[in-house]
């Protein structure tokens, strides 16, 4: 088993040289490069020394449900305590409720390292961060006082309850109902009745209370997603003085048996089997989907970071194995048998993985930086520009980042050869864990549909064309550097392909032809954007990143033309194909 080392230097370079974090630092009091490095090094030490050793334990022993109680692996308890005591859940939370008020991108960077250390464990704090965000944006003052300090301190955790057996991606089909219990001063009180599935960390033994954020339907609500409301329903009721009261009528009835992330309890939850689960309305009635999207957008960025994190963990393991494993005679080096890292195709897989991890990390961080800049912008124009960039990058961060996680963990298995298929080496776990990420928080096809159906259409492609202009400038600057000239030329060709595909997509207005090409289009935009950010690093630190940029250009940017053609081919063949013959 190979030890994990948090990629602190890569994370620092991504923030400083790729995604414009220095501009954000200038707007954040007391935040400078020294503090940034201190935060990252602290997170790196905690994830490397405390959380990473729990990964194998979580996979082998998993979460267990007995007599209505979920027990998590023993090693998780100490790791969670260290996470909370270090204040890692409070980085970006409001100061007024016990947070540190730092940019959210630092939260994302820290959680990426947590996910790399133990993806199953890392899901728990990520969901709490989403609950914090929803309450900050949409909760009442009383709800904020009740829940935020505990969530920010990590004393309680949060969940997100959307899916039901008949309502997966079509959330509007949910049937969980909310009945009003308004009685005088208890205005806004409800009881919930229904069942939810796939509820990550819906029950566990790390904290005394769990704050469930639940989508349900009011009796007079319109049909579909426009009739969904958001409620907060704690596992244990909270008294008016803040102390814990009676157990609420909510419980986990079973745990899903999953391909991976065994240490993460994925629960089937029952609300209101008896008197009804007590809950409070969050925000406005029938605006639950809009309010929940606050959580979902944050979660999609974190899940993108999850893909990067698990890719980093798998890459480190594969690199170590390739350096140690000796087999055959290689074209590089004189040692016989040679380390397999001296075989060209093994080196191709490793080098391409590293380059794509750097690019994917930058896409995820850039989405978060854009959100931070939108919050701190001093003019409406700047606020709109940054918000549009964030909106554009979120589906790319989630889909491109999680596809990358699957690709890199698969290649890491390939580097190991037959030993990768044996569980004892640990490589298989990374692939099993990574495979869920393209599915949850909106499948990657939904992200692609969101990109071409909403994000391009909301401004006729202006945000996309602005990103293409930024990429063109970055690739254009490379043409003046001999060491990067080839990458610059391939990057400019990719920009031309993306520009053409974007114009075509905007003309389609999210019709069937556009949706048929949406996944190819998202891959194309992710390839170009990721290369742009990596090129910025190569221009700033050519001794570290120039060769990796050339690798990225050779094996990633060269596929741009094919993605562009596929994105514009239309839906005719899909509609006509006979899949049963």
Q: Which consecutive residue ranges, at least 5 long each, have pLDDT under 50?
A: none
Radius of gyration: 24 Å
Number of strands: 12
Q: If helices are DSSP runs of H or I spanning 4 or more residues, what is the number of helices?
A: 20
* Classification by helices and strands: alpha+beta
Distance between the first and last residues' Cα: 47 Å
* Structural shape: globular
The share of residues in extended strands comes to 5-15%
Relative helix content: 55-70%
Biggest sheet features: 8 strands, mixed
Query: How confident is the prediction overall: mean pLDDT?
Result: 95
What does this protein look like?
The chain is an alpha+beta fold and 581 residues long. It has a domain of 133 residues. Helix content is 56%, strand content 12%. Strands 3, 4, 5, 6, 7, 10, 11 and 12 form an eight-stranded mixed β-sheet that branches. A hairpin with an 8-residue loop joins strand 4 and strand 5. Helix 1 packs across helix 17, helix 10 crosses helix 17 and helix 13 crosses helix 17. The longest helix has 37 residues. The two termini are 47 Å apart.
């Amino acid at each position: 088993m190979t030890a994990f080392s948090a990629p602190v230097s890569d994370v620092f370079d991504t923030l400083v040289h790729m995604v414009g974090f220095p501009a954000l630092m200038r707007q954040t009091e007391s935040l400078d490069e020294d503090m940034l490095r201190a935060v990252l090094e602290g997170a790196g030490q905690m994830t490397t020394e405390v959380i990473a050793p729990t990964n194998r334990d979580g996979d082998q022993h998993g979460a267990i449900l007995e007599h209505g109680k979920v027990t998590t692996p023993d090693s998780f308890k100490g790791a969670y305590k260290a996470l909370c005591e270090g204040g890692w859940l409070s980085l970006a939370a409001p100061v007024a409720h016990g947070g540190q008020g730092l940019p959210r991108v630092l939260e994302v960077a820290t959680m990426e390292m947590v996910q790399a250390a133990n993806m199953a464990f890392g899901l728990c704090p990520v969901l709490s961060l989403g609950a914090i965000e929803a309450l900050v944006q949409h909760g009442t003052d009383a709800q904020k006082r009740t829940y935020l300090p505990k969530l920010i301190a990590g004393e309680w955790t949060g969940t997100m309850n959307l899916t039901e057996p008949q309502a997966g991606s079509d959330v509007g089909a949910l049937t969980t109902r909310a009945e009003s219990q308004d009685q005088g001063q208890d205005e806004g009180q409800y009881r919930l009745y229904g069942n939810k599935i796939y509820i990550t960390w819906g029950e566990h033994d790390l904290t005394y209370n769990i704050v469930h954020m639940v989508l349900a339907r009011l009796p007079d609500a319109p049909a579909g997603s426009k009739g969904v409301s958001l409620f907060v329903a704690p596992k244990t009721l909270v008294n008016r003085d803040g102390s814990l009261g009676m157990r609420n009528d909510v419980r986990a009835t079973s745990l899903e048996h999953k391909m991976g992330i065994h240490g993460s309890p994925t629960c089937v939850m029952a609300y209101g089997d008896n008197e009804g689960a007590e809950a409070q309305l969050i925000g406005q009635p029938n605006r639950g989907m809009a309010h929940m999207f606050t959580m979902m957008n944050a979660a999609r960025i974190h899940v993108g970071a999850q893909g990067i994190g698990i890719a980093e963990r798998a890459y480190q393991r594969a690199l170590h194995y390739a350096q140690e494993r000796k087999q055959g005679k290689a074209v590089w080096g004189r040692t016989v048998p040679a380390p397999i890292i001296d075989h060209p195709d093994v080196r191709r897989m490793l080098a391409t993985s590293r380059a794509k991890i750097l690019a994917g990390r930058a896409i995820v961080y850039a989405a978060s930086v854009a959100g931070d800049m939108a919050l701190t912008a001093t003019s409406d124009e700047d606020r709109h520009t940054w918000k549009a960039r964030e909106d554009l990058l979120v589906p790319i961060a989630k889909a491109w980042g999680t596809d990358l996680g699957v690709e890199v963990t698969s290649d890491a298995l390939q580097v190991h050869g037959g030993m990768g298929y044996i569980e004892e080496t640990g490589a298989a776990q990374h692939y099993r864990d990574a495979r869920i990420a393209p599915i949850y928080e909106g499948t990657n096809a939904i992200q692609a549909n969101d990109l071409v159906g909403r994000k391009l259409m909301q401004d006729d492609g202006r945000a996309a064309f602005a990103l293409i202009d930024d990429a063109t400038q970055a690739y254009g600057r490379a043409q003046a550097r001999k060491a990067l000239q080839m990458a610059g030329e391939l990057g400019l060709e990719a920009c031309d392909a993306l520009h053409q595909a974007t114009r075509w997509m905007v003309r389609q207005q999210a019709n069937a032809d556009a949706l048929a090409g949406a996944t190819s289009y998202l891959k194309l935009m992710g390839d170009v954007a990721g290369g742009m950010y990596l090129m910025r690093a190569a221009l700033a630190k050519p001794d570290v990143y120039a060769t990796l940029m050339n690798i990225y250009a050779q094996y990633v940017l060269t596929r741009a033309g094919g993605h562009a053609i596929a994105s514009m081919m239309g839906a005719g063949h899909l509609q006509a194909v006979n899949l049963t013959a």
